[in-house]
Amino acid sequence: MNDGVNGVALAVFIFFFLAVTVMGFLASRWRRAENEHSLDEWGLGGRSFGTWVTWFLLGGDLYTAYTFVAVPAAIYAAGAAGFFAVPYTILIYPLIFTFLPRLWSVSHKHGYVTTSDFVRGRFGSKSLSLAVAVTGILATMPYIALQLVGIQAVLDVMGVGGGENTNWFIKDLPLLIAFGVLAAYTYSSGLRAPALIAFVKDTLIYIVIAVAIIYIPIKLGGFDDIFAAAGDAYSQTNEATGAPRGALVPAEAGQWTYATLALGSALALFMYPHSITATLSSRSREVIRRNTTILPLYSLMLGLLALLGFMAIAAGIKVENGQLAIPQLFENMFPAWFAGVAFAAIGIGALVPAAIMSIAAANLFTRNIYKDFIKPDATPAQETKVSKLVSLLVKVGALAFVLTMDKTVAINFQLLGGIWILQTFPALVGGLFTRWFHRWALLAGWAVGMVYGTVAAYGVASPTQKHFGGSNAEIPGLGEMGYIGLTAFVLNVVVTVVLTFVLKAAKAPDGIDETSPGDYTADAGDEGVQVELPPATAGAGH
Amino acid sequence: MSETSDAPRASEVKPPVVTPVRVVIALCLFAPFVAMLWVDSYAKVDPAFIGIPFFYWYQMLWVLISTALTMIAYQLWQRDQRARKADRSEASQNGGASA
C-alpha cells in the first residue's frame, strides 16, 4: 500500500498499544471481588458497573473499529446509502429503552448470564435455548474476525503490513502480536479489561473525530467544496455496473432499502451476545435507562465520522480497497504524530469489542452448551475455566479465519450474522413481554427465518461476487428492494404466530416458565435481586 | 413497535396499564421511528447547512431530537414508577416464586 514505514505514527501507535496492554493486565485488580472464580465475576465484571462505566463499555463495544472503518468506507464507495448507520443508531435507543430493563431485572433475579439462559428459563425449552446460543456464537465469530480486518487496515497504511511478496509470517506478525496480547489479558482479567481500556479508546476516538471534523474541512476548503467534489465523483459511471457510482441523496428506489436496513439493524443490534454482556454487567436497571439517554452521543460521532467518507473523495484519496480510505485520509491529512493517535484509536477500538465478543461467545458456550448438554453438574469454578478457554479458542478461530481466508469471506459472514441474529428477536424480546408464544412455534419461526435469510443472501450477486454480494433483495409481494434480515424476521414472526395458534389448539405441552411477572420489574435492592451480586463489588463506587 | 410499557401484567389490584402519561411516553419513543423510516421526507439536498446537504444534517439533528425525547420519556417513566410504588407500598405485592 505504502512506500515505507511511517516511523513517527508507528511509534505513537506502539506507545498507546503498550499503555492499554498494561491497563488490561492491571484491570483484574480493579474493584476485585472476594469470589473471583465465578462466571459472574469474570464474564460480567461482577455485575457492578455504574452509569459511566456502562456508557464507555457499551460505546466501546457497539461502535467497533470495523464500524469506524466501514461506515465512512461505505459512504466513500456509494454515498447516501452508507449513511443508514445514523438512523439505525438513532432507532436503537428508544427500542432498548422498552425491553432491556426487563431483561436486566429477570436476569438478575434468576442469575442469567446469557440470553439463552433467559429463553430456557422462560420457555422451559433447551432446544430453543440451544438455537439462540448457536445463532449467537455463529453471528459473533465473523464479527470478531472483522475487528482484525480493522487492525489490518491500519497496519497496512502505516506500512507494517508488508508488501505483496513478503513472507506471510512477517506480514501477519504485528497482527499476531496484537491478538496474542489481547487474548492474554482477556483471559486473566475478563470483562474488566475491556471496560477499563474502553475509556482510553473512546477518549482517543472523540479527540480524533473532533479534530478531523474541523481540521480536514478547513484544509479542503469547507463543506461546500467537499460535497461538490463528492457529488461529481458519484455521478461518474462505474464501469463494472454501468450505473453511477452513487448519489448524495437516496433515489426513490433506494429508500425502502435505506429504511429497512436501518430498522432491521436496529432490531438486531441488541440480540448480539456482546451487547447483552455489556448490559447485564451494569449495576441496576436505572443505569440502563439512563444510558439510553446518553449513548446517542456516539451516534452523533458516527454521523460526523461518516462525513469523513466524503472528505476522502474530496481529498482525492484513491484506494482499491475501500476499507483503507479513512486510514489513508488520516495519513495524508494529519501530521505524522496525530495520524499515529488516530491509528491507535482505531486499533484499540478493535481490541475492546473483540474482547467483549469473545467473552460473550464463551459465556454462551459454557452456559448453554457445556452446562446444559455436556456437564450439567459443572461447578462455578469449572464454568469460569471453560469460559476462559473458549474465549481463547474463539479468538484463535477468528484469527485463523482472517489469515487463511479472503477478507470478503469475513464480510460475507458478518452480513449473514446480522440476518441470523435478528431471528432470535421473537424468542428474546417476545419472551420478555409475553408468554403467549409457544416454544415450538418460536423454534420453527427461527428455523424459517434462518433458512430464508441464508438462501436469499446466497442469491444476491454483485459485480465482484456471485453470491453474498449484498444484504438487500426484493421483498416478496412488495416488489421493492429491502434488507433480507427484516424480510426473514417478518416471515419468522408470521410462522411463529400461526404455529402458536395451531399448537395451542392442539394442546401441545407448553413447558415450564420459571419466571413470574414481578421478576421483570425487580430492581437492585429488591428482595432476591441483591443475592446475585458478589458482596464485595456490589457497593464499591468509583 | 410500541411495546412501551414495563407494566406488570395482570395482577388483580393494579392501576390502569394505559394512562395519559404512558401514552406520552409511547409517543416520545415512537416518534423517531416515524421520522427516520419515512425516508422520502428528507431525501433531498436543499436546504444545505454550512454546505452539508439537508439529507445529512437533518438526520444528525434527529440524533439530538430523539435523545431529548428519550430523556423526556425517562423522566416521565421515573415519575410514573415512583407514584406507583407509593400506591403499592401498603398493599404488599410480590408473593410470586423466585429462585
Automatic annotation (TrEMBL), chain A:
Keyword DNA damage set for record: no
Keyword terms of this UniProt record: Membrane, Transmembrane, Transmembrane helix, Transport
Annotated transmembrane regions: 6-28, 49-69, 75-100, 128-148, 168-187, 199-218, 256-273, 294-317, 337-365, 386-405, 411-433, 440-461, 481-503
UniProt cross-references to PROSITE patterns, sorted A to Z: NA_SOLUT_SYMP_3
Pfam family name, one: SSF
Molecular function per GO: transmembrane transporter activity
One of the record's GO cellular component terms: plasma membrane
UniProt entry tagged with the keyword Methyltransferase: no
Localization (cell): Membrane
Family statement: Belongs to the sodium:solute symporter (SSF) (TC 2.A.21) family.
Protein name as annotated: Permease
UniProt lineage: Bacteria, Bacillati, Actinomycetota, Actinomycetes, Kitasatosporales
